[in-house]
Structures are given as structure tokens and as C-alpha cells.
Automatic annotation (TrEMBL):
One GO term (biological process): regulation of response to endoplasmic reticulum stress
Enzyme Commission no: 3.4.24.85
Gene Ontology cellular component annotations, sorted alphabetically: cytoplasm; endomembrane system; membrane
Subcellular localization: Endomembrane system
InterPro entries (alphabetical): MBTPS2, PDZ_sf, Peptidase_M50
Name of this protein: Membrane-bound transcription factor site-2 protease
Family: Belongs to the peptidase M50A family.
Reaction equations catalysed: Cleaves several transcription factors that are type-2 transmembrane proteins within membrane-spanning domains. Known substrates include sterol regulatory element-binding protein (SREBP) -1, SREBP-2 and forms of the transcriptional activator ATF6. SREBP-2 is cleaved at the site 477-DRSRILL-|-CVLTFLCLSFNPLTSLLQWGGA-505. The residues Asn-Pro, 11 residues distal to the site of cleavage in the membrane-spanning domain, are important for cleavage by S2P endopeptidase. Replacement of either of these residues does not prevent cleavage, but there is no cleavage if both of these residues are replaced
GO molecular function: metalloendopeptidase activity
Function: Zinc metalloprotease that mediates intramembrane proteolysis of proteins such as ATF6, ATF6B, SREBF1/SREBP1 and SREBF2/SREBP2. Catalyzes the second step in the proteolytic activation of the sterol regulatory element-binding proteins (SREBPs) SREBF1/SREBP1 and SREBF2/SREBP2: cleaves SREBPs within the first transmembrane segment, thereby releasing the N-terminal segment with a portion of the transmembrane segment attached. Mature N-terminal SREBP fragments shuttle to the nucleus and activate gene transcription.
SUPFAM superfamilies, per the entry: PDZ domain-like (SSF50156)
Segments forming domain Peptidase M50: 130-481
Length: 500
């Protein structure tokens, strides 16, 4: 979908929702009932944003904070250490990114942080993963703040979820009065708990990616082929006689496939090398040749002959769905001959690269090659229990027409897409939760890093710098620098995304 279409749909949705909210609030017949509904449910609508706020989870936060108090104290203290180290590393990373972008013109796909926008650099099929991952990371982030706050005797007023344009998130409402009276170290445990939990999510995602092949072992087979997860609609390989979802692929024109990497390597090799030929007896060629007349070509160079056969000669006369023009030569004549042969019968013969591969003492053999140009290939795809698929075209068309997986289900009852869902979701957890760690610990206005920086300055400098104005000045300088650094990264990344 075009970028402008995405933008128009998003703005249209939020405009309609905002106008509907304003309309219901201003009408006599609906205002009282509608406002009571919003107050009772906790929903609210503003420009390009909707929120849901509740207090039903407050008791859950209290119970979690009372579980193993000593462990939780150590847990959130580790979060403080991680948060401070992450803040330093984040500042270094963002500074290097600004330098690389300004002086090396670093490509957007090579940056550590890349803006993700549906319809721009996020495929529509991945939007659900993206939004679900953001919501999960946001909720667990805020749960960390809430549990740490309750443990430090800070009241939790409520918990909420919001949707800003297309970006979901969560927030927790803490008592400001309680926060202000506790020590800087206890505040650090609260403020660092969110990014600490995001880091744990990253570790969890890495662990799942590492162990899930073994966990899925009893239900899936790997190393003996790949399975088709989807086929592009109206592509050259779709249709009743083409490839189907769930078909295992084991080879392409003699190239054995045991993994997706093998598939990519076989497609690459087919583009780089000349098409394979097939051994066939010369007498049989003459018997099944359906061309109306004998045609020869004086070209001795194979590539020139293939081009000539494509442009000037159609030995099958018409575009046939079962026959294809092949070229070969015999011992008695140096000229290459053309024959219209049934493609499936011909490709069932042994494969060959050279004429010598087809030697037989009993009869004269020939290695027949598809008479096609250098870009077009005849590929034989062995899939499932059906006859092999004969693909005639550019190998990249075949490559982009299917999505494959290394995990072949052992039974029809086993979900085909489960390994792909697990792998994709874990990758999003790792990348998005890691990005939230890097961004949230930056000492920037309205981010956790703002409060982490303030508490750290108070905690570390209160005994050596007694003047609060000097400490406030140091904090303000760090905060301004961090805000500028993050803003510069966002602006440059967005600029390169839309102009690069």
C-alpha cells in the first residue's frame, strides 16, 4: 500500500473517532449517558490518541511486591546498576550514530536504531507482530515500575493502556507526593525497573530463539527439505498445478535442498550457471519432435543460439503448455538442431551438462538443452507427492513467489506457521525491547532517563556538592545534551528514511 494511502487511512480514522467523541459529548440525548460510560470504563479520546485507565490491577501489584521481599530488593537493585550502565552506553551509541550519519552518510538499514512506520518500511503482514510486541513490552515495562513502586512504599493510583496513532503503549500512575519523600536510591529502583524489565525481555527472546528448535523437534522435521508457507497470488507458480501451501520442496533441478539457505543457494546457482540439459536418444528425439520442419542454426556459441531461438525461431510454432523448444547436436553435423519436445517427458530423463555425460554404446545419445535466453531458466522443482513443477522464467520470480520454512510438520494436525510465528515474534521482542532500553535511558525530557539522571545526580553528588543549584545546573546540562542527541538521531533517521 502506498505511503499516502496509509497516512490518509490513519488520519481519517482518528479524525472520525475524534469527531464522533465530540459529537456524542455535545448532544443532549447522548452527552450524559456517554460521559458516564467513559467515566465507568476509563476510556478517553483525544487528538490522535485513545486511552484506557483502570485501578483493578492495583491489588495485583501489591501482591507481586510482597512476594520474596529480599529477592525483589536485589532484583531491582540490579536494575539500578543496569540502568546506569545502559544510560552511559546509550549516550555513546547515539553520539556515534550522529557522527556516522553526518560524516559517513550511513544507510538507514545499517543504523542501530531505525524508525519503523507501517506502509513505509514495515510490511502490512508484519503490522500485527509490531503492535503486539510494542504492547507487551510497554505493559511489562510499566509493571516493573508499579511493582518496584509498591515495594518502595509508593502508592500506585492506576494503570492504563493507550494507542497513539498506530503505536500502542502502557503507563502507570504513581503518587507524586510519595515519590518525592523517598531517598534517591529508592527512586532509582523505581525508575530503572522499566528498562530493566525490557532488558530481561531481550534475554528471554534470545533464549527462546536458542531453544525452540529443540522444543519443536518432536512435531517438526528439519534438515530434509523445506515447506511452503505461502504462495504469492497470481504468480507463475500459483494455481491448481503449481505449488501449494504445505508442500515440502526437496530439490530444484538436481540441487538438493535441506534448508532455506540451500534454497537460496540453489536459486543463486541457477542464475549463475547455464541451464541443465537432459540425455535423450537421437532416434527418440526425432520420433517425438512435433516441429513442422527441421530447423538448424549455424551458431556455434550456445548463448547466441539461445538468443536467436528466442527472438527468431519458435520450433513449436505456437505457445504450448506442454511442449518446449530444445536444442541439441549430433555427431554427423556440427550445427545445432532444434526440436519441439514434450517438456515433462524430456525433463524426466537423466540430467547432463556436456554431451559426454550422455554416452551410450548401444545408441547415439544427445544432451538436449532448453532453447531459451540467458536470463530464462527451466527449473524442475520437486515438491510433495505430486509431479515435479516445471518453471520456465527468471529464477528470482520463483524465489519471490514463495515463502519457505525449515520446519516441515510431521502431521497435518501440527500448525504449519507456528515456528515462523515464534521466530518472528521473538525477533520483534529482541529488537523493539532493546530499542526501548536504548531510548528510555537517554537523559531526555519526558523519558525515564530524565528521572534516572536526576536521581543519580542527587545520589552521587549530594555529599560532595552541597549546593542544590549547582547540582541542578549539572542535571540541566546533561538533560539538554541528551535531549538534543536523541532529537538529532530521530530527525536524521526520519530524513534518511523518506529521502534515502
Amino acid at each position: 500500500m502506498l505511503r499516502t494511502t496509509w497516512i490518509a487511512l490513519i488520519l481519517g480514522f482518528w479524525s472520525a473517532l475524534y469527531l464522533l467523541d465530540a459529537f456524542l459529548k455535545t448532544q443532549r440525548w447522548s452527552s450524559r449517558t456517554y460521559i458516564k460510560f467513559l467515566d465507568r470504563t476509563g476510556f478517553s479520546v483525544s487528538i490522535c490518541q485513545s486511552r484506557w485507565y483502570c485501578t483493578v490491577f492495583n491489588r495485583t501489584f501489591v501482591r507481586l511486591a510482597q512476594w520474596k521481599p529480599r529477592f525483589l530488593k536485589t532484583w531491582f537493585t540490579c536494575g539500578v546498576v543496569f540502568g546506569l550502565i545502559a544510560m552511559l552506553l546509550s549516550m555513546i551509541i547515539l553520539s556515534l550514530m550522529v557522527y556516522n550519519t553526518l560524516f559517513n552518510r550511513q544507510a538507514i538499514d545499517q543504523q542501530v536504531l531505525t524508525p519503523v512506520m507501517p506502509g513505509v518500511n514495515l510490511p502490512a503482514s508484519q503490522v500485527s507482530y509490531y503492535m503486539l510486541t510494542l504492547l507487551v513490552c510497554g505493559i511489562l515495562h510499566e509493571v516493573g515500575h508499579a511493582v518496584a513502586a509498591v515495594r518502595e512504599q509508593v502508592r500506585v493510583n492506576g494503570f492504563g493502556i493507550f494507542l497513539l496513532l498506530l503505536y500502542p503503549g502502557a503507563y502507570v500512575d504513581l503518587s507524586t507526593e510519595h515519590l518525592q519523600i523517598i531517598s534517591p536510591l529508592r527512586q532509582l529502583r523505581i525508575y530503572c525497573a522499566g528498562v530493566w524489565h525490557n532488558f530481561i525481555i531481550v534475554l528471554f527472546g534470545i533464549l527462546v530463539l536458542f531453544v525452540y528448535p529443540w522444543l519443536l523437534g518432536p512435531f517438526y522435521t528439519t534438515g530434509s527439505g523445506v515447506v511452503i508457507m505461502s504462495v504469492t497470488e497470481n504468480s507463475a507458480v500459483s494455481g491448481p498445478r503449481g505449488l501449494a501451501v504445505g508442500d515440502p520442496i526437496t530439490s530444484v533441478s538436481g540441487c538438493e535442498i535441506s534448508s532455506v539457505d540451500d534454497w537460496n543457494a540453489c536459486i543463486t546457482r541457477s542464475m549463475r550457471e547455464q541451464s541443465f540439459g537432459y540425455c535423450m536418444a537421437v532416434e527418440l528425439i526425432k520420433d517425438i519432435d512435433t516441429s513442422t520442419k527441421s530447423k538448424t542454426n549455424s551458431y556455434t556459441n550456445i548463448s547466441k543460439q539461445a538468443q536467436q531461438a528466442k527472438d527468431d525461431i519458435d520450433c513449436c510454432n505456437i505457445s504450448s503448455s506442454t511442449h518446449l523448444c530444445f536444442m541439441y547436436h549430433v555427431k554427423t553435423s556440427p550445427d545445432n538442431k532444434l526440436a519441439c519436445l514434450p517438456a515433462r517427458t524430456t525433463t524426466d530423463r537423466p540430467m547432463c551438462k556436456l554431451q559426454s555425460d550422455c554416452y551410450s554404446p548401444k545408441m547415439e545419445m544427445a544432451c538436449v538443452y532448453p532453447a531459451v535466453d540467458n536470463q530464462t531458466k527451466l527449473l524442475k522443482v520437486v515438491h510433495g507427492y505430486r509431479p515435479p513443477l516445471l518453471f520456465l522464467g527468471h529464477p528470482l520470480d520463483l524465489h519471490y513467489s514463495v515463502v519457505l520454512s525449515n520446519y516441515v510438520p510431521n502431521s497435518l494436525l501440527v500448525p504449519l506457521h507456528l515456528p515462523h510465528v515464534i521466530e518472528t515474534f521473538c525477533k520483534y521482542l529482541i529488537s523493539l525491547s532493546g530499542a526501548l532500553v536504548i531510548l528510555n535511558v537517554v537523559p531526555c525530557y519526558a523519558l525515564d532517563g530524565q528521572w534516572i539522571c536526576h536521581c543519580f545526580v542527587e545520589f552521587s553528588l549530594r555529599s560532595t556538592i552541597t549546593d542544590p543549584e549547582i547540582r541542578g545546573l549539572i542535571y540541566s546540562v546533561i538533560l539538554l545534551f541528551g535531549t538534543f542527541l536523541l532529537a538529532a538521531n530521530v530527525i536524521m533517521a526520519m530524513w534518511m528514511l523518506f529521502t534515502g
